[in-house]
Design goal:
Length: 110
């Protein structure tokens, strides 16, 4: 008899409506163009930061440290130059291999 009690049915309907309204609001918030753009921007910033940090690590560049009391003012703007030799050697090797592959493919076509 509890299933056919009108008061109980009204309470269930009201609860289901409230849950449905919350679900629809959550979906609308998730697919909102503004929210999608915010999430995309945050994701791009995170990925860019990670990429820059990994490139800096590969080049041997240490992040700048904040200026502290007692630092020598004449040395504040001095920076260590990164060792670019391994990077340039790698780029050169990739270019040579790429050129060799292109020449090989051209000769195969003939």
């Amino acid at each position: 008899m509890a299933d056919t009690d009108p008061d109980e049915l009204e309470r269930r309907i009201a609860r289901t409506r409230a849950e449905l309204a919350q679900t629809v609001d959550a979906i609308a918030e998730r697919v909102s163009p503004k929210r999608v753009a915010e999430r995309t921007v945050a994701d791009v910033k995170t990925r860019a930061g990670t990429f820059v940090a990994s490139v800096g690590d590969a080049l041997g560049v240490s992040p700048r440290r904040p200026v502290e009391y007692g630092d020598d003012p004449d040395r504040l703007w001095e920076e260590e130059q990164p060792n670019l030799a391994p990077v340039l050697i790698g780029v050169g090797a990739v270019l040579v291999v790429g050129a060799a592959i292109m020449l090989w493919r051209r000769r195969r076509r003939r």
